[in-house]
Amino acid sequence: MRILISAAPLGACIAFVEAVPISLLIADEYVPLTVDGQQLKFRVDSGSARSFAIYGPSYEALMGRGSCSRITSGCYFCPPDNPCDDILSRKRWKTTFGDGDEFEYVQHNVTLIIANKTVHGFKFGLAINYSTVRGKEVDMYGLLGLSFGRSGVPETFLEQLQKRQVISNLTYSIRADGQGPLISGNLTLDDNSAFGVPPLPLSRHARLFKGLIIQVWSLTLLDSHGDPLTQQRSVDVQTEHTSAVALVDSGATALDVSDADFKSMVKITVNALRRHCRRLYLPDTGQIIWQDAETGIYTIKTLAVPYLPTLVYSVGEHPDRMEIRIQPKHYVSGCDTVSCQLDITLTPHGYICLGHPLFRAYDVKFDLSNYQLYVAPHGVNFASATRPRFIQPEISKLSLPERPSE
After folding, report:
1. Distance (Å, whole) CA 57 – CA 36
2. Residue 231 sits in the same domain as residue 371
3. Which residues form the signal peptide (predicted)?
């Protein structure tokens, strides 16, 4: 920390402590933290305000002795100098995520070490129960929630750090690599760097639902040359108020699109593939892009990947509207010689989540105090950057219902 000393009346000196940014390495969506001397990992989640570790005795009672060593997060075990014999009788909090994962956790005072800074008496959640509706065994995971605090939720990770003067501001950035799977890169807390782009105000729903929510007006599909592939509509969405809201969520692995837009993506890709590969025998559409029956993940033949469209979201309110471009390389992952995974999910109920593909395409900085974020393409020249140009295609209009965040 940098200590600034100023002269005061009567010769007194007042010390002002300015916290320096804290950088944590993200590896496959997890960051490391030391809790009571134990090295644990936590999923970085801008879509949640909750933070908790997995309570080892409960997990191993469910999954068997030694099972904690087989999950990425690892488990927390109360040390002799910080016992928690009463843990099952403490007040419990429950949270359910969009994919059906449900956690029940309690609070525990721990000593947190973050970037060589030691914080005593830090309140952290310990997950003692977990369930899922996905119909298959899923590993539990520790969570680092970086969204807004609100009533009914314990004081957040960022709020506690600010109160302890470990950070000065409720800001952070995620700078991830350009390709998946998942996201890897850097999480910077209290990021005071200039992103070089104007801020994008959050939707009014952000204050109402306490979530990192932006307004979304349309989705356009572009070919590899940047030409629109979907028919343009002459609709003034501003006057009709036909927009949707989207949660900017680093804890989500995919982008949400509507059923109709996904069908357009499939049709465009398959038709382009057939045009360029007329001499090859090509299987039916369902054998080029399909949904895995076991995992529910959409998969595409590797030879068809070059023909996928670029997704262009029109986001923000006038006069702050901008476009967010997600190229195929940002929403395709896990490729081999035969197939790749599409990090796309269908949203039949109109809930939109901008997950990992967004962070592979852009550096994102969150300013919770001012309800705004910054979205800058990877490698942008910050000194000369301006807001990305806004296209006016009003294509594939999103008229979807709204939802609160987790």
Report:
1. 16
2. yes
3. 1-19
> Which percentage of the chain shows pLDDT scores above 70?
83
Query: Which domain covers residue 65, as residue numbers?
Result: 20-168
Strand partners, 76: 55
In-domain check, residue 185: no
Residue 394 placed within a domain: no
> Are 141 and 202 contained in the same domain?
no
Residue 187 lies in a domain: no
Non-local CB neighbours of 70 within 8 Å, separated by 6+ positions: none
Res 297: pLDDT? 93
In whole angstroms, how far apart are CA 157 and each of 44, 48, 181, 322, 333? Answer: 12, 11, 26, 31, 31
CATH number of the domain where residue 333 is located: 2.40.70.10
Dihedral-angle region of residue 108 (phi above 0 means left; psi in -120 to 50 means alpha; beta otherwise): beta
Average pLDDT in the chain: 85
Residues 206, 355 within the same domain = yes
Give me the amino acid identity at 316.
Answer: G
Q: Residue 163 — φ and ψ, nearest 5°?
A: -60, -35
pTM of the model: 0.86
pLDDT tops 70 at residue 395: no
Give per-residue pLDDT as tens, 247-292: 999 999 999 998 888 999 999 999 999 888 876 677 788 899 999 9
Q: How many domains does the chain have?
A: 2
Shared domain for 163 and 274, answered yes or no, is no
Class of residue 114 by CB neighbours under 10 A (exposed 0-12, middle 13-18, buried 19+): buried
Say how far apart CA 200 and CA 192 lie, in whole Å: 16
The DSSP call for residue 329 is: H
